Amino acid sequence: MLNLAPKHTQFIKQKALELGFMYCGVSKADFLEEEAPRLENWLNQNKHGQMHYMANHFDKRLDPRLLVEGAKSVVSLLLNYYPEETQPEDTFQISKYAYGQDYHFLIKDKLKTLYQFIQEEIGEVGGRVFVDSAPVMDKVWAKKSGLGWVGKNSNLIRPGVGSFFFIAELILDLDLEPDGPIKDYCGTCTKCMDACPTDAISTPYVVDGSKCISYFTIELKDQIPQEVEGKFGNWVFGCDICQDVCPWNRFSKPHQEPLLKPHPELLHLSAGDWRELTQDVFGEIFRKSAVKRTGYAGLTRNLKFVANEPAPLSGHHVPEDFV
Questions:
Q1: Does the predicted TM-score (pTM) go above 0.70?
Q2: Fold of the domain spanning 5-84+100-172
Q3: 24: closest CA among 11, 38, 33, 36?
């Protein structure tokens, strides 16, 4: 019987590149046996904080065949979001992934187009597209697909590229040619662990989500606890510290996706502008941005918390206490 898996795999990877994805890899849709005890342990230690959704659908997170009936392959894709120009260092910061339009919609559109290409070229293929919105362990599948290794800061890192990219998946009931994983190139480096001001990476390869600045500024709906006062530097939405200090990110190159370019006003907001941010200005600058997730009230809470901190604004630099 003719094996069409190599041909189909090559077609999908080629179309993915044409749609603007950086890289595309494939893994077999099996149960994630190694991840089961790790995930259970992480949840039992409450490292997800108030992100209760992380504890939902435990079985589905570990087995893609529970998400797509008859699933045979997981296609993992990377989309670069590293910006050509970043915010001034002497102002309040948002994570680079949120500079442009909300990636969920942008990537989902690309995935739907890719899925349509597959249907037209290969035939009736069952599947679903996933962009950070379902119980799929993105980094694990990307690692299995050979797109990189998961670093000590728990981000997927690709040699010669870094980690400033989005991860998405197509889970298909189609036999494809799987790629193998690559080795871990973190070595003895602990820059991300040493730089984290809230000690969220106290153990290599394990991030305590409940201690992460991104958690406090995006996920946490309550008041930010006083014990982390003075530790945020100038981050008011997300945090890139563990990526900014990663040596592999010196290879990051600016993306070419127009929809991910920042709103022009964002790059010109001074610290004073941020402090005086009105709901109207928020609505204009972040109308299509992922920053809408925290809302005007949430962002204002973050600004007040950070503005009251004794630590000086320091841009992308780590607060002096942690250098």
A1: yes
A2: NADH Oxidase (3.40.109)
A3: 11
